[in-house]
Design brief:
This protein is mostly helical. The protein has one domain (2-229). The protein contains eleven helices and two strands, in the order ααααββααααααα. The protein has helices spanning 2-11, 13-25, 30-33, 35-55, 81-107, 109-129, 134-151, 157-176, 181-184, 190-198, 202-229, and strands at residues 59-65, 71-76. A two-stranded antiparallel ribbon has the order 1-2. A hairpin with a 5-residue loop joins strand 1 and strand 2. Helix 5 packs across helix 10. The longest helix is centred in the C-terminal third of the chain and has 28 residues, at 202-229.
Length: 230
């Protein structure tokens, strides 16, 4: 009986992390507790821009991550509208994609090692190739080491909870950060860049990215749930 309860609890760490995330977000210490996870999401956002830049044939000069959780990717992008649109869209959608990967690592144990090790190694590569400020370099080094350490050995309950919490935070930030785009209007933002490129208003692009992100995350929950049930 107790063994069955243990298996059930292991299968529900993701939802325990959801509940804890909700409780933490309502406390006065939410900003401090969630700060490292916000920085991780910033790294994901900026690296998504950087990878998209390489895909369309551009060149990345530097990535900066600041203590206020903002970030900047300096790059040269081909002049075509499609190329620039792909790079502008990659930040928020890339964060949603990584949130999906982390969810998969949490909910399907045999995927966890490869996903975590791959992310950890990629973080260290970006540290060597793109990071150009001390704060960002220290943050990326710390997170890369944590992910590689988590990838080693089995996934016990403590690791499962931490991974679930990280997955939830990245997924929530991927969607929640988009809401800022509705407030920025015509200022400097990825949505404003899309508006200049394709004429449709920035709120249209913010809505589109939000809907795509929610659909990706919901699909991942469903697909990994099906996988677990087999």
């Amino acid at each position: 009986m107790s063994r069955g309860f243990g298996r059930s609890l292991d299968g529900n760490w993701f939802w325990v992390a959801v509940a804890v995330s909700l409780v933490v977000s309502l406390t006065p210490w939410a900003g401090i507790i969630l700060y490292p996870f916000k920085l991780f999401t910033t790294w994901v956002h900026e690296c998504s821009h950087a990878v998209a830049t390489l895909v369309v044939g551009g060149r990345v000069s530097a990535i900066t991550i600041r203590p206020d959780t903002s970030g900047l990717t300096e790059s040269l992008i081909p002049a075509g509208r499609l190329s620039q649109g792909i790079v502008a869209s990659a930040g928020y959608l890339g964060a949603a994609a990584v949130g999906c990967l982390l969810m998969a690592a949490t909910r399907v144990e045999k995927w966890a090692h490869r996903i975590l090790l791959g992310l950890g190694i990629f973080m260290l590569i970006t540290l060597a190739v793109w990071m150009r400020n001390v704060f960002g370099a220290v943050m990326v080094l710390a997170w890369g080491a944590v992910l590689i350490a988590l990838a080693r050995g089995g996934v016990d309950r403590a690791k499962r909870f931490f991974l679930s919490f990280l997955a939830i935070q990245v997924a929530l930030n991927a969607v929640y950060d988009i809401r800022v785009l509705f407030l920025i209007g015509r200022g400097q933002s990825d949505a404003a860049t899309m508006a200049r490129l394709f004429l449709l208003p920035s709120w249209f692009w913010a809505c589109t990215w939000m809907l795509i992100s929610v659909a990706m995350l919901a699909s991942t929950l469903w697909l990994t749930g099906q996988r677990r049930g087999r």
